[in-house]
Design goal:
Distance between the termini: 33 Å
Structural class: alpha/beta
């Protein structure tokens, strides 16, 4: 598989929007070389432990070209890119789907998985295709509702397709909050721990590519669904 058993000396590119501090702080504490690319990159630098090796690459949100350039910068300056962590912020859009501007849904879909796919593609062709690696998409902020669930369903399918296409050289996962956590501070802290677990082989590979974080350990999920209950997320049974 593409992951290493430790983060020490590994290069991790963290992109997107959301609670960067918890994720990058945990990775840096484990000895990773962390690169931050996104609109909040500079703000998250303060979360790094003293002496941590960090590179910040501020760029506009939802800009695939800028993220591609960030990947190129990481490979050119640090000589490798072992792991990619995409923070996906599914911003709330109140109201039913039938009353929203379709262009607004396009923006949500673009933010949720188009930019993530572009970044994965660039990282794969620049480094991971030849050397292996891993990708974790983390739903870092958002709210439940028709537009958000449509975008997250797309992210689920994207993850499953990429996991199949890129195996065994590159491992691909997505991490989403279960109903019991739903974007709380507990989810943000748990997600940071789960990302490190995924990058260091401490998560059971039988869980599959899409993982739901509940108050219990990370559990398997086949799809994002408004009908999913906490019991279903814990047992891994698909919603009916």
């Amino acid at each position: 598989m593409g992951r290493a058993s430790t983060s020490t000396g590994r290069v991790v590119l963290v992109t997107g929007e959301g609670d960067l501090a918890a994720v990058v702080g945990n990775l840096a504490a484990r000895g990773a070389h962390v690169v931050l690319a996104g609109p909040e990159a500079e703000d998250a630098r303060g979360a790094m432990p003293p002496g941590a090796l960090t590179l910040t690459l501020p760029c506009a949100p939802g800009d695939p070209a800028a993220l591609g350039r960030a990947v190129d910068t990481v490979v050119d300056r640090l000589g490798r890119i072992d792991h990619l962590v995409n923070l996906v912020a599914a911003r709330p859009r109140p109201g039913p789907l039938m009353e929203m501007d379709p262009l607004a849904l396009r923006d949500i879909l673009h933010s949720a998985f188009v930019t993530s796919l572009a970044c994965v593609q660039r990282a794969y062709w620049r480094w991971m295709a030849a050397h292996g690696g891993s990708v974790v998409n983390v739903v870092a902020a958002g709210a439940r509702g028709g537009p958000q669930d449509a975008a997250l369903a797309g992210l689920t399918e994207l993850t499953e397709w990429l996991a199949a296409e890129l195996a065994p050289r590159v491992d691909v996962h997505s991490l989403v909050p279960g109903p019991s956590l739903n974007y709380t501070a507990a989810y943000q802290a748990g997600a940071a721990e789960a990302v490190c677990a995924l990058l260091t082989r401490r998560t059971d590979s039988t869980h599959g590519p899409v993982l739901v974080l509940t108050e219990d350990p990370v559990c398997p999920s086949r799809a994002w669904s408004a009908r999913r209950t906490r019991a279903q997320a814990t047992t891994g049974r698909a919603p009916t």
